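Protocol step 4 of 6: structure prediction from sequence.
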Amino acid sequence: MAVAGQRPGRPAGPGPGPGCGEEAFSPSVLGTREHWDAAYERELQTFQDIGDAGEIWFGEESMVRIIRWLEKQKVPLDSSVLDIGTGNGVLLIELAKSGYMNLTGIDYSPSAIQLSEKVREKEGMSGIKLKVEDFLAPSAELSGFDICIDKGTFDAISLNPDNAVGKRKQYVRSLGSVLKPEGFFLITSCNWTKEELLNEFREGFEILEELPTPKFCFGGRIGNSVTALVFQRKKVRPSILDKLD
């Protein structure tokens, strides 16, 4: 994951953005499993020492933004929600406090899941499901979700030194397999612009809404350090054989 407001790995100088070319970002340690294993091992130790759950990626406002959108859309509280790259699981805790009951968090780092389990226990939220799982190789039971949420995981995958382009494409395929048709995908990114994300998720998904994020002004131009979008998975069209039945 990348810290809000930073855009590591951007190629220097003018040129096409990540959605326009094959080489989107320079490789970074932030895109490796080893980095996140070590990071969450440290955060797990810190939690055991002083009870601090650690970093909230993109800040508390990012969680508020997501929950407000769900409430605005009157998403049923029993909808199945998947947090992709859950980290310390704090987003799931906040969703549970807001009444959502069918919550699952996955992370490919065992230390992250150990930490999120400790946080879950401390908060008394035993109903939250947590599992070690690589989203790029999802298990068969990881399917049928009404809502998928990503805060920084796609960013991290984009920085992987080993075939980041292929991993981004696999991410989109995985999303299509775990999210129900017409299900919602909420993504928060500090590496990608709206236009770039529209390009990355053009196959099988359509944009519903861009959520408001903090703006900055530099050189007379206004921009966003964070992009937050809501996509909807397109309906699966019936095949000709289905129509003949």
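Step 5 (inspection) to follow. Strands lie at 80-84, 102-107, 129-132, 145-151, 179-189, 205-210, 215-218, 221-224, 227-233.
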